[in-house]
Amino acid sequence: MIDLIKQALSSPAGSFGFVFSILILAFLIVHWVTKKVTCITKDHSVLSEHVKIISSNIHEIGRDISYLKGNIDILNKPNLAQSHSPISLTEIGKTLSEELQAEKMIIRNWDKIFADLEKNICNKNAYDIQQYCIETAAVETERFLDKSDLEKLKEYAYIKGNPLQYYSPIFGIIIRDKYLEIKGIKVSEVDKYDPNKK
Q1: Three-state secondary-structure class, residue 146
Q2: Which candidate, 135, 111, 132, places its Cα nearest to that of 123?
Q3: Which pLDDT tens digit goes with each residue over 2-22?
Q4: 132 and 175 within one domain
Q5: How far apart are CA 70 and CA 165, in angstroms?
């Protein structure tokens, strides 16, 4: 059998047939690989979209968990914000705000804060603005304050023995009030859009 294959390959027709079949096989393999790579690339773009959506959802879940954890950490502390809507600072909150010079920090960082609010608040009603300001101040304070102001706030929290999130309502409420004023929206409109009030 092997002798027969050797004779076929050594003949001019056999050599041509062998080379031709190798070329056909190579062509088919290249075609198959190209088709699979194209298919993988096509599927990859669809997967990329799903990964972006999942990533966004994971980020939101992470924010919510951080927000809840911070709220649990400060349960035994005096409230800096009144819980009735629209949320406002308590007397302790106002005192701490002055001690921290929170308003000055916000004014120094206002361009950064305003750009963030404009970009990330989808529904520009009073309730959504309030929620975004308070939650972002609690979970991602660095989005509102530059590094030096954030370090001052962290140092103050460390000295007082409180978690950073304890002071976040002060920043969230002041930012909300300033942004609503610029947009010509009254703070009292928060209740109008509050889903818990409907």
Answers
A1: coil
A2: 132
A3: 564 555 556 555 556 666 677
A4: yes
A5: 6
DSSP code per residue over 65-129: HHHHHHHHHTTTSPPSEESSSSPEE-HHHHHHHHHHTHHHHHHHTHHHHHHHHHHH-SS-SHHHH
- Say whether both 28 and 116 belong to one domain: no
Could you give the number of structural domains in the chain? 2
Amino acid at 103: E
Distance CA 168, CA 28 (A): 64
Q: Is position 193 within any domain?
A: yes
Residues 97 and 185 in one domain: yes
* Single pTM value for the model: 0.64
Residue 82 identity:
Q
Mark whether 110 and 151 lie in a shared domain.
Answer: yes
pLDDT tops 60 at residue 146 = yes
* CA atoms of 73 and 169, how far apart (whole Å): 14
Q: What is the pLDDT of residue 101?
A: 95
Q: Which domain holds residue 130?
A: 82-197
